[in-house]
Write a structure and sequence with these properties.
The chain has two domains: 121 residues, N-terminal domain of MutM-like DNA repair proteins (Alpha-Beta Barrel); 124 residues, Orthogonal Bundle (Helicase, Ruva Protein, domain 3), CATH 1.10.8.50. The protein is built from six helices and ten strands, in the order H-E-H-E-E-E-E-E-E-E-H-H-H-H-E-E. A hairpin with a 3-residue loop joins strand 3 and strand 4. The structure holds zinc ion (ZN).
Length: 271
């Protein structure tokens, strides 16, 4: 499943190539993905200009020149391909643009989604309205993080992965951020001191930004969200490294299971 850094990388790739482009064709090969596609989709999109791109959690947002925004989610297996060859049976949508660019939405498992919504009411869209803090936003600070964690009795790692509190911190990034911040995944989420919350907010942002930076350099004309982060995994400090030495203290990394997900951590560096 694409994680937040990959979605950000894909979004930046689209923005670089498609900002100010006009949609001149749309071929739609099925009525639905995870949800039904908007009725009259081609009629609503052909002729529209893309004003700019953004992202909220793992939703890619494209502002159109008719005061609507296109929302797109890659789901489990979705990818967007710019100027690649036709992808066969799993290519569900094919966009053509006024400069000849072709964008293909390919999704074998069809957990992806696409919707259109008035830009002025974007935040009220049912897929976006319940989402937590955006970790790459300026407003993601220690006090903001402490605020959403306040009163939470669950283990810190479980709370970090709750999309209603903070978005985009998946299993890998939760383990990595907690190691960087020196905080145990088992400690109570609501019990962080202000200095610890600030350290954790900084660590989350830094880990995500490093992954984006690693992905950005490998992105050319081919934009793809390909599953687990091939470009970043060599840099993991703890994730997937049970029994290997902690990069900070050289003690073996430990593994535990929390809410059916593997957590990797160092019991010496993380308290
Ligand atoms: Zn350690």
């Amino acid at each position: 499943m694409p994680e937040l850094p990959e979605v950000e990388t894909v979004m930046r790739g689209l923005a670089a190539r498609l900002t100010a482009r006009r949609i001149t064709a749309l071929e739609q090969r099925r009525p639905d993905l995870r949800f039904p596609l908007p009725t009259g989709l081609a009629a609503r999109l052909v002729g529209r200009q893309l004003l700019g791109f953004g992202r909220r959690a793992k939703y890619i947002l494209a502002a159109l020149d008719d005061s609507h925004t296109l929302l797109l989610h890659l789901g489990m297996s979705g990818r967007l391909v710019l100027d690649g060859p036709p992808a066969g049976a799993h290519e569900h949508l094919t966009f053509g643009f006024d400069d000849g660019t072709v964008l293909r939405f390919v999704d074998p498992r069809r957990f992806g989604m696409l919707d259109l919504t008035p830009s002025a009411r974007l935040a009220e869209h049912p897929r976006l309205s319940g989402l937590g803090l955006e970790p790459l936003a300026e407003s993601f600070t220690g006090p903001a993080l402490a605020g959403v964690l306040q009163g939470r009795l669950s283990p810190l790692k479980i709370a970090l992965m709750d999309q209603r509190l903070v978005v985009g911190v998946g299993n890998i990034y939760a383990s990595e951020s907690l190691h960087r911040a020196g905080l145990s995944p088992r400690r109570m989420a609501g019990g962080l001191r202000p200095v610890q919350a600030a350290r954790l907010a900084t660590a989350i942002r830094a880990v995500l930004e490093e992954a984006i930076a690693a992905g950005g350099s490998s992105l050319r004309d081919y934009v793809q969200a390909s599953g687990v982060l091939g470009f970043y995994q060599d840099r993991f400090a703890v994730y997937g490294r049970a029994g290997l030495p902690c990069p900070r203290c050289q003690r073996p990394i430990k593994k535990l299971v929390q809410a059916q997900r593997a957590t990797f951590w160092c019991s010496r560096c993380q308290r």
